[in-house]
Amino acid sequence: MDSGRFRTPRTTARPPRGLRTSRTVRAPRPARRASRLAALAAAGLLATVVPSAQAGAADPVPRIDLTVLVVDDGSSPIEAITAELKGSGVPYRTLDLTDPGRPLLTPAFLSEPSDSATGRPRARYQGVVLPHESAFGPDSAEQAALAAYERAYGIPQVDASTWAHPGVGLDYTSDGGWSGVLDGARAHVTPAGKAGPFRDLRGTLTFEDNDPRVSESYGYAGRPRPGYTSYLDMPAADGGRISLIGEYAHDGRRELVVTFAYNPHQRQSRALARGIVEWLTQGVHLGQSRNYLSVHVDDVLAPDARWDPVRDCTPGDLDCPGGDGGAGGNPIRMTAADAAYAAAWQTSSGFLLDMVYNGGQGEQWKAEHGGTDPLAARLIADRDRYRWINHTYTHPFLGCVQDARTVPWTCAEDAAGATKWVSRAEISAQIRDNLDWAYAKGIAVDRGELVTGEHSGLRTLPQQPVDNPNLAPALADNGVRWTASDNSREPRQRSVGTGPNAARTVPRHPMNVYYNVGTAAEMADEYNWIHTSRADGGSGACENDPASTCLPAPLDTATGYATHIVPQEARTALRHVLGNDPRPTYVHQSNLAEERLLYPVLDKVLADYRELFADHTPLVNPRQRDVGAELNRRAAWEVALAAGQVTAYRVGATVTVRAPAGVAVPLTAPEGTRRQLLLGTAPFGSPYAGTRSAWTTPEALQSAITLRLPTT
Known about the structure:
alpha/beta; Rossmann fold; 33 strands
């Protein structure tokens, strides 16, 4: 069966999967106070002698391009904000401070006095992200040019991570503030934060503390001075409040000041990222962000093989010596009671599962057990309470013909040395027969969605480096538009076959609640085998994997699942949710059977999410076809942005966007925004997280998208 135990590849910056701890990130330490004050004073004086572009009352309203400037010093807070911009589709330009050949930040780099298209003064960037408040040097011409630009055009600036001092509107830490490790700290969104950029949050934000042996976040908190509005704070020792994030208005400019360090993988970073972007763009930007969670339950109606703690492998798998070639002698399969529990859990949790089913294996089980199958009867009775996805009739491997005489298996070859492939007819029959089975039971299935067994048919490295050439024609024969792939092997969507109607993949995240366990003890035992060193009795795989870390000691098989694995997997799933990632997570029917291991993980994900986010920021639970369409739109949008084919700007309360024909544009705007029609206007987009957003294209007979922003 398709195993969920393989880990998703990640960049080297991501925390090791074995221990799942966040790397330590530190905010900048304070320099000597006198030198800092002198530098800040010099910057202020220098800014006053730069020729101002401030428009007079009679001057035209400027054009402000919907692009963000990111000044990058390689730090993790800049990486985190950039990840949010990229993930939500917000155009940005990076200015790399570590590149000696980078362009200088000058007035001409930032703006032009008269735009050729509109004849108005033009601001090239709607917001600026700096590593800290004086990234170019407090007495530099570049810093002065930036300050003048921000004053002239009303451009906001984010200070991604700094320390508490008067130059950013806060008292020094020594003046009743605080500095130190934030692991486990509970911060609170202030009323101003809830009414402003962090309106999507419910109110309390707890900093991650994944490993008590590691300091994961360091920060400062200070008392606000005049001109500073706190958005996120924490209690002070004297009973007052001290700020961690806030807006500092001064010198005709606005800065969002963040006084702690973070990286793009931490929960607090991801929870705050949308609000940071909303503040930076004043709520008007290209791009769209949602919090997604879909869970596919594979192998429904099929039995799954069981982990053997003696041989440390799974009977039935090709790499398990002595296996019986099937599901093993003691398979794991849901019962009717498990199905009834699943339906009741959906109702109580308010969350819908996708049942990825194998009708033929259900029929085989029925034939082998006296002609009755209470599980199938219960699921069919509750058929309208789930979404259903075709998983092929009997779950065969649909790639090359496997030769199991070696471990690992290889692709069989014919007499001429050519690879033997599962035929088009066999693939087509597996798809068609499973659909027919569902239709005969009154189960609604979208024929355009498919999950093959083990994601087979698609390339499988290292044995099968290309797709089965018979897969694409078989998908076309049966009207399949979206076929699942394993995100840990292929994280990007791609076409299967050629032509405009070729099916496209929908990558799915494997959850490390394994397919071959029914009890917490079995789960912990297999987890120990994978994640402990040879010296501790494990496989040692963690010692050879640079992306993993071995456990310091094996988990207690009686308690390890609840105390270590559940919180770890819930954190991983929540990271995907908070990363604007629509890709489904997949598990297996065995996880709903016996000790029902999946529910503690999902219960924690849902509880943690609802503690973080307000009611108007609900989880979005898309089906496979909708995920495929979303990824497809994003890919086209990325291509258009990279090719410089998108023009978007704001003039006062009017937003204008032009993109290539056929390319949908993601747009976010405040509540009250209206879309310009050929005659009149209409409300724009749909509500989410206190804003309105949509993927949209020009109206008929229009060459551009035009939005009218609320003026009050």
